[in-house]
Structures are given as C-alpha cells and as structure tokens.
Specification:
The chain is α/β, with parallel strands linked by helices. It has 2 domains: about 150 residues, Rossmann fold (3-Layer(aba) Sandwich), CATH 3.40.50.1970; about 160 residues, Dehydroquinate synthase-like - alpha domain (Dehydroquinate synthase-like, alpha domain), CATH 1.20.1090.10. Helix content is about 50%, strand content about 15%. The protein contains 14 helices and 10 strands. Helix 7 crosses helix 9 and helix 11 packs antiparallel against helix 12. The chain is globular, with a radius of gyration of 19 Å. Its EC number is 1.1.1.6. Keywords: Metal-binding, Oxidoreductase. This is Glycerol dehydrogenase.
Length: about 325
C-alpha cells in the first residue's frame, strides 16, 4: 500500500497574501482563522484581501503549544457555527493546531506560514506537546492542507533564527530517510523520499547561507526563494508518500527527549534538531570529515551544535553548586 498526502495547491511567491482572499474563497467564504498575534500582524495583507472579496471570518489568537486541550478548545469554539474551512496563520505550532482542528471538524485546512521554520504548512501531521513544551507524541492526519500560501516577502522579513531552524529541519530529512533505504530494491516510497531529501540538501548547500545572510532585505532574493521552497515543499514532500513500513527517525526522537529538559524550553524545534543531527550523523557512521563539514554549515547559521550551546552547561554548573 502507498499513501500519498500533499496539498492540492501550493503557492510560494512574494506578495501572494495581497490576493490570497480570491484563492481562499474558491474553497470557502466562511472561515475560522487561528493565528499568533505577531503572525496576524504580518499577514495583514491577507485579511485586507479577504475583506475585499467580502469573505466572512472570525479570528482567534493562538498562543502556547499544540496540545490536545488546545485542539479540543478550538473545536468547541467552532462547532455549530457553519465554518467551511479553517485558516492557520503563523509558525509550526499554530499550523499544527489548525490542521488537527480542521480534521476533527471535517473541514479543509488552509495554511499561511509566516516563518520558514518547518514544513508544518505542508505536512499531514500534527506534532503534539504538553503545556510545558515537552513532546507528547504525534497525531497523523488524513490529509495535508488543501491550500498553502507561502508569501516569501513575509517569510524573509521574519527573524533569521527561524530560517536557520528550518534549514536544520530540512537537512535532517536526508539523514533520517537514507538510513531506511537498505538497497537499490527498497520500496519506491523510500527511494522517492531519499531522492527528494537529497535534492533539498543540494538546494540548501547552494543557497542556504546566502539566504540567511540576505534575510531582512526588502528584495526577496532567488536564494531565499529556493531555500524556502526546500524547507516547506521538499521537506514536506519527503513524508508525503509513505508505504506500510515504519521509518527510523532518530534525530527527531533525540529532539523529543531534549524537550523534556526545561533548559531547552526557549529553543526552537530546528535548533534542537541541529544538535540531534550531529549525534545522528555520528551514530550513522558518517566519515569524520563529513560530520565536521555539516557542523560547520550549522555553526555558520548560528545553530547549536553542542550541549553547552543548548544550555546544558549552565544546568550542570547549577547542579554542582552547594
């Protein structure tokens, strides 16, 4: 069995939000919108566009973590109000909540990422946490968002820390898929994922550093465009085609363990992944030179590659105090 989950429409271009209302109302004219406070401000052109096409919508601000309680709360808020779609605006946590809420309401979801920090805008998966930010498992979804509107001007204006996080979360896809390909006769879904993740690595090796350095500029460079495509589309595509066999994802398992330590609470998903990727590469048995080269790439993006950079040195020092 092969299962394919991917958005029906994905658009990645500057200023797409200014005409996003027309795209969204092809799906629905009555919307529940959920987004972070900062994200909603960044997506102001989309709200103006929805007003222009006279769409009916209600906005609810998201804060915190994607927990089962948060999902249930939004489902309760939306029930019986006749919404026809759920729109998520923000980073991975907000988008993960929206996808789960839409599925429980049996409605299509529309995602509007405002940071290029993960592939959450694309994937058919909600990553769950508890109220303290500790990993609480994964919620597979029946389908990906119906529409993804990735405005590269908005993404490029976000703090570059999120971009670096997304780059790390994309690099790791190759490591986590390649170990699942036992030979050239591995299942086709595995081979597709490996080749897609390899393409993402090639794009990042060529453009990621340039995109990182160009963040905050008024012009959306080709390097940023390609890098954001790799983070949202290619990384999302890696998991879009799956067979019946489970896959090893060691770096993400390490990430989930790191969330159990309060010292990592203020670090981003991709920042924990960056360190976990180094550990994964060592356990994978990659050549020492390759690991050093990978660490160098991540270091240039100001990503943590040691426990000390994740804050564990301070924790150990505090534990030693009398």
């Amino acid at each position: 069995m092969v299962n394919v989950k991917a958005p029906a429409i994905y658009i990645n271009e500057p200023d797409i939000l200014a005409s996003g209302g027309e795209r969204i109302t092809l799906i629905s004219r009555k919307l529940l919108i959920i987004g972070g406070k900062t994200a909603l401000t960044a997506a102001a052109p989309l709200l103006a566009s929805l007003d222009e096409v006279k769409a009916e919508y209600e906005i609810h601000t998201f804060a915190g973590y994607p927990t089962l309680e948060q999902i249930a709360r939004y489902v309760s808020v939306a029930s019986g109000k006749g919404y026809e779609a759920v729109v998520g605006i923000g980073g991975g946590k907000a988008l993960d909540v929206v996808k789960a809420v839409a599925e429980r309401l049996e409605l299509p979801s529309i995602t509007v990422p405002t940071v290029a920090g993960t592939c959450a805008a694309w994937s058919a998966l909600t990553v769950l946490y508890d109220n303290e930010g500790r990993s609480a498992g994964y919620l597979p979804l029946n389908q990906s968002p119906q529409l993804v509107l990735a405005d590269t001007r908005v993404l490029a204006a976000a703090p570059r820390r999120y971009l670096a996080s997304g780059i790390a979360d994309t690099y790791v896809k190759w490591n986590e898929t390649a170990v699942n390909m036992k030979n050239l006769h591995s299942d086709l879904d595995i081979r597709l994922s490996v080749h897609t993740s390899l393409l993402a690595v090639e794009v990042l090796d060529r453009y990621a550093q340039e995109a990182y350095e160009a963040a905050y500029e008024d012009e959306v460079t080709w390097a940023f465009h390609e890098t954001s495509q790799a983070i949202i589309w290619l990384a999302g595509q890696v998991g879009s085609v799956t067979g019946g066999q489970p896959r090893i994802a060691l770096a993400h398992a390490l990430h989930d363990c790191l969330t159990q330590f309060p010292v990592t609470k203020d670090t981003l998903h991709g920042e924990k992944i960056a360190f976990s990727l180094i550990v994964h590469s060592i356990l994978q048995g990659l050549p020492h030179e390759d690991i050093l080269q990978l660490a160098g790439k991540l270091h240039k993006l100001h990503l943590p590659i040691t426990l000390e950079q994740l804050g564990f040195w301070e924790m150990r020092s505090n534990m030693r105090r009398p």
